[in-house]
Amino acid sequence: MPHRRRVRCCRAQTVMTMNIDLHTHSKCSDGLLSPAELVERAVANGTGMLALTDHDMVKGVAPARTACESAGIRFVPGVEISITWGGRSIHIVGLQVDESNAAFVKTLDDNRAGRVERAKEISRRLALQGIDGAYEYISERVFDPIIISRKHFSRFLVEKEICPDTTEAFDRFLKRGRPAYVFHKWMTLEESIHCIREAGGISVVAHPGRYDISETALFALFDEFKALGGVGIEVVTGSHSPDKYAYFARLARRYGFLASAGSDFHAPYEGYIDVGRLPPLPQNLTPIWHDWF
Ligand code: AMP
Ligand code: MN
Ligand code: MN
Ligand code: MN
Q1: Which of 23, 93, 214, 262 has a 20 to 30 Å separation from 41 between CA atoms?
Q2: Which of the listed CATH numbers 1.10.150.650, 3.30.1330.200, 3.90.1150.10, 1.10.10.10 matches domain 115-174?
Q3: pLDDT in the model for residue 9
Q4: Whose CA is nearest to atom 19 of ligand 1?
């Protein structure tokens, strides 16, 4: 049984419990389930409120909302935007965004532009390591090459039995400093917060414990994020070990950030936490959903 977290339901003036998962992917980006299949799994796992946060893409939002409505669970339209900050890739989650906002969709389209060329370059670098045909293999299977991420390459390396799991694929080939890593310039932190706000949403730093940066750099990121109007950080995520929950809970309190929770679910048997199966937020935090009821 997943842990339940307490949510105050203002309308009914009662306290109810609900499983909340505010960071998930569908095959509209680099997940493996369709939005409807993702919702079905979330419901089976007891999720009461679900956000779909595909990378730089909101195509799955409408079908996910429809599926949540028919299943009778709450839906949060979201996105996970790739940004470049301090020469590194950081992810900013936007929650409660309006997916029909044309300027927002265009900004996301522009951010994705370049993924095909980057994927071809990653493939070329893998070929230099003696691993051929990655781009062709992936693009034949993905629904649109403009969404190819390193996750697809990691699955290719597993399917070709070059790596035993996707984590090793990142460690050996795909992460920064490895032979098939290709730098990509995404939008800026400021642009991401701005476009999320223009689409009616709020910004959250995704899995802050996953970036390979010093504490000084992390604090600089949080300072800048806050100054630009960012409101939340993920405290409980599939990318954080439990000791990081406490660390980021302390930082959320210190910075006055709202606390978010999301599995970062991509596919069954991938990652550490299934959709809707998160442990509760640590005490004395203001959840990002505190005024959504
Ligand atoms: P990209 O947007 O192409 O840079 O790919 C980033 C995606 O790769 C993320 O959304 C994660 O799904 C995945 N990813 C990044 N780093 C790792 C890692 N160290 N282990 C497993 N998956 C990762
Ligand atoms: Mn991903
Ligand atoms: Mn991410
Ligand atoms: Mn994610």
Answers
A1: 93
A2: 1.10.150.650
A3: 47
A4: 170
